[in-house]
């Protein structure tokens, strides 16, 4: 099995996508911070989902079963990032690209 893969971050609100080459065993919190710096939005204001499920910071791509070129959906949270499960928009675009 390959240790690093390409994943596609899809932001439905801005209708943008970006491909990152990521290590499968790094906690997603680290990957979230990298993406956050790239888009210039604090990580606590964004929510990341794979196959419709919210990704937690301790999970790895390997734990989630993410494969090469799979899609991570990104949405901006409502209420200034309060973690109440609400997001400003959700995407129907999950899973493999």
Describe this structure in words.
This protein is an alpha+beta fold and 97 residues long. The protein has helices at 28-39, 61-64, and strands at 4-11, 16-23, 46-50, 53-54, 70-76, 95-96. Strands 1, 2, 3, 4, 5 and 6 form a six-stranded mixed sheet that branches. Strand 1 (4-11) and strand 2 (16-23) form a beta hairpin.
Topology:
Layout: E1 4-11, E2 16-23, H1 28-39, E3 46-50, E4 53-54, H2 61-64, E5 70-76, E6 95-96
Parallel strand pairs: 1-5
Antiparallel strand pairs: 1-2, 3-4, 3-5, 5-6
Index terms:
6-stranded mixed β-sheet; 2 helices; 33% strand; 97 residues; alpha+beta
**Total DSSP E strands:** 6
Please provide the ordered H/E string of secondary-structure elements. EEHEEHEE
The count of helical stretches stands at 2
Question: Could you describe the largest sheet, including whether it forms a barrel?
Answer: 6 strands, mixed
Low-pLDDT stretches are 84-97
Strand content: 25-35%
* Integer average pLDDT: 77
- What is the rounded distance between the termini? 20 Å
- Overall shape: it is globular
Q: Radius of gyration from the CA trace?
A: 12 Å
Amount of helix: 10-25%
Structural class: alpha+beta
């Amino acid at each position: 099995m390959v240790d690093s893969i390409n994943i596609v971050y899809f932001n439905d609100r801005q209708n943008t996508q970006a491909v990152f080459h990521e290590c499968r065993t790094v906690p997603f919190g680290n990957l979230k911070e990298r993406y956050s710096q790239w888009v210039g939005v604090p990580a606590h204001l964004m929510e990341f989902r794979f196959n419709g499920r919210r990704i937690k910071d301790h999970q790895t791509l390997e734990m989630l079963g993410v494969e090469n070129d799979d899609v991570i959906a990104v949405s901006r949270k409502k209420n200034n990032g309060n973690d109440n499960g609400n997001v400003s928009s959700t995407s129907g675009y999950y899973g493999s690209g």
